[in-house]
Amino acid sequence: HAEVLEALLLRNFGQPATVQPFAPLFARVSDLLPAMPERLALVSTEIKPLEGESHLELPGSLLSFLVNQYFGGGHVATPKLAGKVTPSEQRLGEQIAKDILRTMVEIWSDRLALQPGDLYIDITPDRLALLPSDMGYVVLTYMITCGDSFRGEFRLMLPYEAMELQAPRLMPAQQEQPEVGVEPEWEA
């Protein structure tokens, strides 16, 4: 998935990037909310067959950098903005979310046929804050590095209980071990 996202960033923004995935981790809503950046676009969608909403956290710093690249400001330092994400960042965040989910569908197709639903884009974590604080998520974190220009990460949060139900399909196939024949014991 990370390799496909690298090609996507190069194609859409003309920006060579390195996308590095981290090991999946488990987190509860109560752990996720304090760790979220102040400026963000939170994209929520239901991804069938996973029951419950999944969320994509796109930090404002990443969106600002990509908006700057998209509109040809690659040679100028990305402005440091405060407050909520801008409408341009929000629209670009929606496009990036569609690309991330589309590539996820392609990459996971050999294990699980995914179908993302409608996207709901919030510029606050309020939608996540409405969920029970002990609700668990599988968190997939990706670090994006664009030379010396930008370094940041985004996170995809998938409902833990729904992922647990799909675990047998998502696990690597086990190769059968050949049975070792036991030789009869020699007797006197």
**Secondary-structure element string:** HEEHEEHHEEHEEHH
Biggest sheet statistics: 8 strands, antiparallel
Helix content: 25-40%
Q: Give the CA-CA distance, first to last residue.
A: 63 Å
Mean pLDDT: 84
Keywords:
188 residues, alpha+beta, 8-stranded antiparallel beta sheet, 8 strands, 27% strand, elongated
What does this structure look like?
- Strands 1, 2, 3, 4, 5, 6, 7 and 8 form an eight-stranded antiparallel sheet that branches.
- The longest helix has 22 residues, at 87-108.
- Helix 3 packs across helix 4.
- With 188 residues, this protein is of the alpha+beta class.
- 35% of the residues lie in helices and 27% in strands.
Topology:
Blueprint: H1 2-13, E1 18-21, E2 25-28, H2 29-35, E3 40-48, E4 53-59, H3 60-70, H4 87-108, E5 115-116, E6 120-122, H5 126-129, E7 136-146, E8 150-159, H6 160-165, H7 167-170
Antiparallel strand pairs: 1-7, 2-7, 3-4, 3-5, 3-6, 4-8, 7-8
Helix pairs in contact: 3-4
